[in-house]
Structures
1.
Amino acid sequence: MVPLPYYLILSAILFACGVAGFLFKRNIITIFMCIELMLNAVNLAFIAFSTHWGQLSGHVFVFFVMVVAAAEAAVGLAIIIAVFRTRETLNVDRVNLLKL
Amino acid sequence: MDTTAFVLVSAAKTALFLAILLGVVAYTVLLERKLVGRIQNRWGPSRVGPFGLLQPLADGLKFIFKEDVTPPYVNRPLYLLAPLLSLSLALTTIAVIPVGGWIDIKGIRTPVQITDVGVGLLVVLGITSIAVYGIALAGWASNSKYSLLGSLRACAQMISYEVALGLSLIGVLILSGTFSLRGIVEAQQGTFLGFIPNWNIFRGQIVAFFVYLCAAYAETNRVPFDLPEAETELVAGYHTEYSAMKFAMFFMAEYANMVTVGCLATLLFLGGWLGPVFGPWWLQAILPVFWFGLKVFFFLFLYIWVRGTLPRFRYDQLMAFSWKVLFPLAIANAVVTALVVALKS
Amino acid sequence: MLHYALFFIFAALAVGGALNLLIQRHPISSALSLVVVMGALAVEYLLLGAEFVAAVQVIVYAGAIMVLFVFVIMLLNAGEEERAGRSRVALLFGLPGLVLFGVLISWALIRINPASNRVAIGALHGPPDQIARLLFQPFLLPFEVTSVLILIAIMGAVVLARRER
Amino acid sequence: MNLNLWLIPVLPLVGAAINGLFGRRFSNKLVSAIALASTGLSFAYTLFVTARFFSLPADRIPHIEHYATWIRTGAFEVPFAAQLDQLSLVMLLVVTGVGFLIHVYSVGYMAHEGGYYRFFSYLNLFMFFMLVLVLANNYLLMFVGWEGVGLASYLLIGFYFTKDSAASAGKKAFITNRVGDFGFLIALFLLVKHFGTLEYGRVFEQVSGMPVEASAGLLTAIAILMMVGAAGKSAQIPLYVWLPDAMEGPTPVSALIHAATMVTAGVYMVARSNPIFFRSPEALALVAIIGAITAIFAASIGFTQNDIKRVLAYSTISQLGYMFLACGVAAFSAGIFHLMTHAFFKALLFLSAGSVIHALGGEQDMRNMGGLRTKIPRTFWVMTAGVLAIAGTPGLSGFFSKDQILWKAWASPHGGKLLWLIAVFTAFMTSFYMFRLWFMTFFNEHRGAKSDKREEPVHGGPADHRAAHANPHGHGHGSHGIHESPWVMIAPLVILAVLSVVGGYVGVPHALGGHNQFDQFLAPVFKFSAEAMPAGEHPASPAEGAAQHAAAAHEDEILMERLFTGISIGVAALGFLLAWLLYVKRRDLPGRITEALGGLYTAVRNKYYVDELYNAAIIQPIIQGSSRWLWRGIDTNVIDRTIDNGAGGAQGISDAVRRMQSGNIRSYAGWVALGAACIVAYMIWMGVK
């Protein structure tokens, strides 16, 4: 019988890790993964609350989050591929020009 | 039933199932070699033991005693991780697969199955989807272009066909209204029109069955979708750099997956262990498992038969087939099924 | 008891995976550690009784999205992430601030601990059919909208990734 | 009964509009035709209205016509409404009549000027505003006219706007008037605040309920503020300085605006507000004193001026002083009477002076005139009539009106011996400088050499005039060929001369066997004052006076009045003799006297340095203060510096903030994360607390 706050703290820690990665990492793909990590943390919080209140809406929200994440991944990775074709790099610090 | 008994029974069942599965895998290899031989108008292995029945044992020993070469340029941890991942995942799927009804032994009533999960089907799908990593990592970690190309193809192929696979199951799910494999099977009990068994394949899921089969072959990288290991182009595809036991692991994983696919097809479309049950109690206990095994054997036979018959697809044909044929078919099937069910109720 | 054990084991697994994601300098390693995190989270979901979500988590996230990542990484053959000049600000303030923030949140959450609310396995299996009902009755519009979103995303991905010739 | 009073002001407005908008393309004939038609029609209609007016039943007077509501805020309401009563009727007749005559005169006088259409449209505009001022039934509408005539006067003074002196003179008039208007406005505010309305009738009803203020109070304040406005408009001390310079304008303008009509607006206003003034003795006393001092002061300056128009200007000021004196001693009707007669003869004088200048081709310096009696006889005779009238020759209009004022200054309870003395002395001075002008202009030999400008510079108007005459379109002569003015100019002069001679007979006092119809005619307007009279006191209102003349005190009153009449005649004769002595008989005397007087003379010659005084006391401080203090001090050091520093600060801040826009994605993300963290921390804080 794990109390709710534990899940929330776990979620917060994961989210913080995601933020940190987003800030520190240079590889655009890794940064993208960090975003996914944040989303997962949020999902965990959703599920925990949903169970806590005995309502399934949280699950539905998680479902939506996943859908959005999938769409995001598809488009984002496509963008990354396009960028890589032109820039030959995945380092966000190098990708600082709007036009080549 | 108290916890200790539960644990003990579960452990016993797990061991039993694993043993059976590995045995099945081993003898599926033998079966394949012999059947393909026959299809190609030659004897298969026949030296070791009567009719070469001990051949699998020999192969196992050979794999074990071969030198295990690890190329210097590989990414070692992942290189090691990949085959383990493949095999373990392939074997894990058996955990949720029911092979029979319930059995009572001295008041201990347990399903003929390691565990009955509410969302068994989803578990299977999840595990198979994770299985991609094995191949992908293998190809990437071994740091050779053949491997990489092979694993790239494998990834693309598996992602693409997973969609069709999943969608093809929707119809079945609609009909049975549960994710539990046991539930699905129990939903197929009985007959209609007096004699036709109430199996999903007879209840309009024939298209779904076809789609599922194609997708499953692709998932397991079998002919005619075996581009990841297309010898003629890529030496051996993703496991080019693997040798000895590691290669054996991939090998076993592949056949285990075939078995899993067979089991799943049986459960979903052919009414699992359902079949005529008669005779004394021990016979009644055995028969369902027998029916089940029979159906799985049919699928394995089909696998081998197809391998011996069909040529390999070209890569673009592969993708086109997935996205332009199977995917629409699966969706259409799902829609039609949903409509029919809706109209019936 | 068993709950606590499982919870902490997989929580540790998740956090470890997340940290590894940060530490590893090769995208593939990061991706795999992220997969680990997701698996651990799936188990946490199971602990929370959300079977369906757990399965979907594995299938969609681990099985589809992350595979896509790995695929792209392999496709682009992304090498190690070169360590550019570390931003001193980030090191001086970022990490401590992050830790501080986490501590603050944890403290707050512990402090508002609703002691009575415990989560038991099977207390609530998100049964797929009920979720489906929610999805197709109250959340129908969002559902349809997300489907459109997915469609647009697919087309966008195709357009973007196509090598125009 | 509807009199359509609005027609009277609107007609000139139409003329002004047509001329002002299209006149540039019109021929001079058409322009003058339009202008004359509009004013003439207005005058004619005024006559018609007058005829109808006498058939009005007494209780229907004042006759008020309400046309529209101008302002309505809460209970406070200002209508567009016209009020016709005896007072406004008199003013109407004077304005339209004299105005029409002067228009006619202008046709000839301005014949050779540029901007012909401009002149007439301005003139008509002036007529419009003046009539609005007169006809208004509330102070605000009156104020509109008040400001409007100010505008017209500004435009006409600066008619020769190419001349710097003219332009500055216009500005001077305008600004000085603003000072007065300021007082007037405050008076209006007080009225609104305390009576909640600006309509004469309502205000006066409320006022008549109030007692005479023993010590200065609200009414005193209002009255004094109104007097400030009147002083500005009617050129009384201390605001008279603009009028002499206003002579920059063409002579008809001086005649119409700065002699006959506009400058009397102040008197009209005081008379109109008589109930208010009457209830505050202090204000009345102030009015009387200002009037008296202005009269003598201006007259004394008139002594020494050599510019013919300036002499007339100062005489105008002093005559206005007379009118205020009359109002100040509560002899409002006497004031209006003098206003009317003065309008006649002063217009006459100005116009004939204009005719003289016209004849001399722009010469204004009397020392360069003389002996014109034979050269321009018609002008001479009409001007003679005017001079005699203003000098108070028995039987002429000026005599009656001035005589009444003198008598009231002595007899009225508000009057006093000192006021009377000053008035009498002023009468003497008036006749002296008028005859001085007369002699210098028309007698002796012609000193026609061109003016060597020892005096104040020749003014813009005449200069242009001379230029205009020099040009071939003119009468084909320069300034040497002295010639009589054309009949179009002489005819109005004749009419005005007749009026100046006989105009006085509407108000012959009882003492001289008349019935003072003018007094009785105006009496209803001043009834509020009459009501305020505490019983038993000597009546201030002539009407009351007429009523009480039946009393026992009657006879010696008559005697007294006759005596005073004699005195005034005497001083007039004295002035004549002195002028004759100095400027005909012993022409060397003036120079000697000047030397004898020395400093005093120069002081007077320079108008007591009043302009210089104002310049030093008011204008310079303002200029210095605004330039040193407001501009360099406040504007540059405080406001500008504040703004500059603000801009600089903004620049600095943005320069610092700019560094956030590094283009480094992760730094942006860092900021976002920081912000989110702050918000979450805050929410946690709120939640936990």
2.
Amino acid sequence: MTGPLTLESIAEKMKEFGVSEQARKNRIRVTTTPDKVHDTIRTVQAMFGFDRLITISAVDNTRTLELIYHLTGPHRIIVSIAVELERDQPAMPTIFDILPPAGIYERQIHDLFGIVFTGNPNMKRIMLNEDWPADEYPLRKDWKPDPDTFYGGIKGERS
Amino acid sequence: MPEVVVSIGPHHPALKEPVNFKIIADGEKIVRLELDLSYNHRGVEKAAEQRDFIRVLPLLERVCGICSHSHSTAFAQGIEEIMQIEIPPRARYIRTIIAELERMHSHLLWLGVAAHLIGFNTLFMWTWRDREAVQDTVEEMSGNRVHYNMNEIGGVRCDLTPAQVNAALARLPNLEERVNKYVDMVNYEETMLLRFRGVGRLSKEEALRYGTVGPTARASGIDYDTRKDDPYLAYADAPWNVVTDTNGDVYGRTRVRVWEIQESLRIVRYCLENLPEGAIRVPAPKNAPKGEILSRYEAPRGELAHFIRTNGTDRVERVDIRTPTLANWTSVAMCLVNQNLADIPVIVAAIDPCLSCTSRITLVENQTKKAGVISFDELIRRYRSRNPEEV
Amino acid sequence: MAVTAAGLSQRLVNWARARSPWITVFNSGACNACDIEIIACLMPRFDVERFGILVKGSPRHADILIVTGHVTLKQASRLRRVWEQMPEPKYVIAMGACGASGGVFHGLYHMMDSVDKVIPIDVYVAGCPPRPDEIINAVVTCLNLLREDALHGGREWRKKAVPVTRTEEKTCGVIP
Amino acid sequence: MTDPVFGLIYIFIFPGFLFLFIYALFFAFLDRKIASRMQQRVGPPFFQPFADFIKMLGKEVIDPAGVDRVIFDAAPLVALAAVMTAYLYVPIIGNSPLAFQGDLVVVLYLLSLPTLVLFLLGWLSRNIFSAIGGIRAITQLFIYEVPFFLALLTPALMAGTWSISEIVLWQQKNLWFVFLQPIGFIVALIGLQAKLERTPFDIPEAETEIVAGPWTELTGRRLAIMDLTIDVSLVVGSALVAALFLGGPLIPWAITPAWLEGIICFLLFLIKTLAVLLILSSIKVATGRIRIDQLNDIGWKYIASASLVQVGIVLVMNYLWVYA
């Protein structure tokens, strides 16, 4: 890259991946599709130096599940890459191979939302206790605790 | 010598919070380790979706007792930006004062705990004694020692009287003197140097690769500080510098933290002396418009990010809290391999883990330093069946 | 009490127990605030060592277990195990609003809501978090309880007794 | 040791076990108080170690699963008996009536027993922390024992005797060994600190790493007895260093009533042991804990060499001065 990095140049480049809009002074939001996320991140990483993953946010907006990847770099511009997934059997390619810190966030989202990140070598339970039922994801909007299910703690000894 | 499995936690004197490490050690050397952080999961994010903004703030303060102001400020900041209201300058300054006092108390606390971890109880006692001065100031200003509850959407809850400002200013010289003494101690005290130098070293490249934030990153020479990168509150006005160090080990992190206390003292002094007049809050609407924001805040432990999505009601649709500790865990797991068993508490403490913020699990890694490959199920099962006597 | 060797030694032991309460802190998922306030108790300003209170790492050495915070589902079984590891006579103090009822976290999905669903509690401390003064007060209350237990020869008497209403015990109560 | 009544009083009451019990608890109190004051705290009241001791005696004793109860009960008693026996050979009011040629070696041997017992307890506890603590204790033993023994044997080399009492007498005639052998004195203090597992050498019971090391599974009276053992070792170690390097409880001139001389000697004993305790406590407060590998490094590189240098100096001095 030559010259100062501008949001316009990023937006220009992002056209091939999806719709982009400027969210704030130095923030840009790119909406794309699940299969392009890997390429998008690779591109911004290689071309604009977005080498730091701030977080992966997951949102359940009752119709779909959204994932938003926030990346930044030495220029301190933040790019948010948003995708939408269906609610049943959501799956998503992992970005663990290009950004190692993502592993932790992906596992946490898997636990709370039930999104499977294909390719992550360690898609195991991390947030909830070992007795938690396998197919219940508490941060989904339609989840309600079932009074008959045992969620953990001490069995039969609650006074 | 055969490998032994040491299970540290969830109840262990070095850990003030529940976490479980399973350390596979060869004699005194760590071969690999397994971290398990889920003991503290409460479901704050779910609860935040069910309460209105006024009641979310106290809840978010209780995400963590040490960085309570960080969480509530980050959230309030985000909501205010979505509502497009500008808080008055006096409120900004008061928030900054509390934030920097919180950073001071957190770093002093950390220094004491780090000293305690290497058995240096005298420094532990001294730093905590000086921390009481900070606590007194905060208590005078807000009425509480730990959960300050200063924030409201649109400003702060209570004003600072001139008497409070003077009392706070009167405490600063003594504190500055003591902090200078700690800087000397950190740099020259022999047993601390022995225990901190060269322990848990992260090069600049590794620190970048594993996404470290806060003092951990700054100790490796990365000037990543949200206060400078994305100025909020009064940080654009106050004179201060981003502290970095090139050591990258626990020693470097300690130095960064004590120097940051000095910078915080400068900011607090500036803000107290230049406190603008005016209102302390503006009325905020009940409902927030539809919108989303990534609100960043430099907590004592590093960058805190709240992703907030609102949907036009008086509740958030989603608040996703990314705590600094979570960002740093990956690097800790990397640092620990091939280190000494006795150094585990120091290395883990060096990122100042705030597990109640984090309440999540992380990975295991093996001798080749390859990122995050995990195979601990079988081991845990074997260990549990053999020796459930974990203390 | 008749002046016998056994009686004297019992009185000596009771005296010693009240003067050497060793505590161990168990964080059952709290937000740290209670924990740092407990550590603040050890500090020069409050210095609980002058009452003989020491914080011990091993529950085997402790007399009083301080549980900070609500109990998360995963910590419940661990808390009970730590409690079982303590030698008799043992006392439990539940710290803060969370220890009593769950506090702001009451009713969340990953919680047991209060400590007394897992282990019996002797003293509750109010506050979020309780000030160090109140923590010291709670330990003192606990010691008074210990003395009365020694007089009654066990803790069964408390099952029928009414709550203690002494002026200095405003913040801490005894389970009726 | 002709009069049996005197012998019994000496062993059991004064300056024997009863006095030792009280003095050891007082020592423990003083140790904690000094540390507290240096840390700007008030510190415990004077009866604190006694209350702790009585309380621990009254607590329930828990046997960890799979532990050999008999050995678990007996081991602390063995340790306590060893250090108490060692105490009888250390001069307190004048020289010990039990002294014999070679009692220095016996005392050193008996002082090593508590460490071995700690290792045994750690090993038996079937707890991983205890096991690691026990291994650390025994590793540390191998590091500090050699320089410590060498440092304590240098006075014997110069005085030409293996009896503590005769070394004390030698110092009465000549000069205190702290002036003749300052390196040996420093090494002895460091070794004593390591032997008693006090900061910076509290590696085996490092609270923040391995809970309480070998102590983790001890409860009730076992813990009480082990605690008392460490307190007594502190007294015996201080008294030993005071006797070997600080001239012991003897004064260079004679005082006519024998009882007055006894009292003065006893006061000297108190002053000198307390002085040693003050040094040890200051070291404890002013340092952090070092790692076992660092201790290994420092121990063999510097402390052991220093004690060897001291031995060499003593041999040269013997050749030039004492036997010349």
